[in-house]
Amino acid sequence: MLQDLARALRLQTLDRKIGVLENEIATFPKHIAEIERKLEAHTRRLETDKAALAANNRDRKKLEADIQVHEQKISKLKGQMLEAKTNEQYRAFQNEIAYAEGEIRKAEDRILEFMEQSEPLDKNVQAAEAALKKEQVHVESEKARAHEQTASSQKALNEQKSERKSVADEIDKTLLAHYERIRKKTKGTVFAEATEGRCSACQISLRPQFFQDLRRGDQVMFCEMCGRILTYNPVIDVAGDVAASQQIA
Q1: CA torsion angle for 167, 173, 176, 182 (degrees, to 10)?
Q2: Which end of the chain, N or C, is less surrounded by CB atoms within 10 Å?
Q3: In DSSP terms, which residues pair with 232 in a beta bridge?
């Protein structure tokens, strides 16, 4: 009985380790997805800054093109003005020229504004590019580390599962069936201690006779309330007792 109890306790330890490793492995893809989302945020920021700078350059070039159109128009109007036959025609050409020159001044003022804005926009692009490169290096490093940890954890998980199978194969089939049923019901906490006459898991008081039978330690006993396998408190050194019993034998 002591040997089976020791194996069942070992099985619980292995199941908990397996659970921890499975959780670790499950978190790695989530971690990678999270840092990749941060990388996407940096990429979008760079795209936004580049778009703002490109819009600035595009608007400035449009104004420069408009200035050329106005200058060509002024040149044409000046040529036509020389051929004016009346004062009214001459003044009309002057008014058109003055209007075109006013539009040129407005465009030049706007170009200066765009030029002033372009410097910080360009700096934003440079800063975003630097941040993106830094984040890319970080992401690649984290992905490599995650792959290494996944491989290491997967190897450890395989070893734990292999040992679990070996231990489970040696346990009495009836006890193993009870163990698996309790494990599923309690989400992995199969054993509980009988502390001061109570089950440490559900805190139900144990019957005096039940408690005395448990203290003898000659059978596997289950809490009458929560169904967990009980061990007497102070906890029996099952592994030590098994070793001692083997030496005596």
Answers
A1: 170
A2: C
A3: 194
- Rounded distance, CA 54 to CA 20, Å? 51
pLDDT digits (tens, 9 = 90+) for 19-54: 999 999 999 899 889 989 999 999 999 999 999 999
Separation CA 246–CA 164 (nearest Å): 23
Q: Token pair for residue 50? A: 């580049």
Place of tokens 């200066």: 112
Q: How far apart are the first and last CA of the chain?
A: 15
pLDDT above 60: residue 243: no
- Go through the domains of the chain in sequence order and give each one's CATH number: 12-170 (1.10.287.1490), 173-248 (no CATH)
Residue 115 has pLDDT above 50, yes or no: yes
pLDDT of residue 233: 62
Taking CA atoms, 200 is separated from 65, 125, 191, 229, in Å, by 85, 62, 9, 11
Judge contact between 135 and 38, C-beta under 8 A.
Answer: yes
